[in-house]
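Technical annex, item 7. During the second reporting period the consortium partners agreed on a shared format for inverse folding records so that results from different sites could be compared directly. Each record opens with the tokenized structure and is followed by the designed sequence. A conforming record, contributed by the partner at site C, is shown below for reference.
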């Protein structure tokens, strides 16, 4: 089983960006926790982060030829308005789980809507790094 974990805009600033909202872990530290958990479950994992919508879309497209079983995506602010990212997720037909470190429904009103959620198999938010780890559990269950 292969899982692609995508991190959207500004997630490269984790650890210094609004730590009261997103926590103090850096993106590297989060990736290390995900990688360690995936090793326990015998799951191959690859990470990709970009601040550019097009780069994320191209990586989603390549996920098909790279034979990924599941995509886990934290689209960042693209969650709320990127129909192009939504269409890419829908197009590849790879089960996709949307994750967020913070609870997007307890924040500003514009964050309450996700254009990605309708084409994802599920969404996990508000659990910090555990949002990703729960998504890995869900991915393993989907694959079985």
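Designed sequence (site C submission):
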């Amino acid at each position: 089983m292969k899982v692609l974990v995508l991190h959207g805009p500004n997630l490269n600033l984790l650890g210094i960006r609004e730590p009261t909202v997103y926590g103090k872990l850096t993106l590297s530290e989060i990736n290390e926790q995900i990688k360690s958990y995936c090793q326990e479950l015998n799951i191959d994992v690859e990470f990709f982060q970009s601040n550019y919508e097009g780069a994320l879309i191209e990586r989603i497209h390549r996920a098909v030829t790279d034979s990924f079983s599941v995509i886990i995506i934290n689209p960042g602010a693209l969650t709320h308005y990127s129909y192009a990212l939504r269409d890419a997720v829908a197009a590849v037909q790879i089960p996709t789980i949307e994750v967020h470190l913070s609870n997007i429904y307890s924040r500003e009103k514009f964050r309450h809507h996700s254009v990605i959620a309708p084409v994802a198999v599920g969404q996990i938010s508000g659990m910090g790094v555990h949002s990703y780890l729960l998504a890995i559990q869900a991915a393993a269950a989907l694959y079985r």
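Strands lie at 2-7, 44-49, 70-74, 96-100, 122-125. The chain has one domain: 2-143. All partners now use this format for quarterly exchanges.
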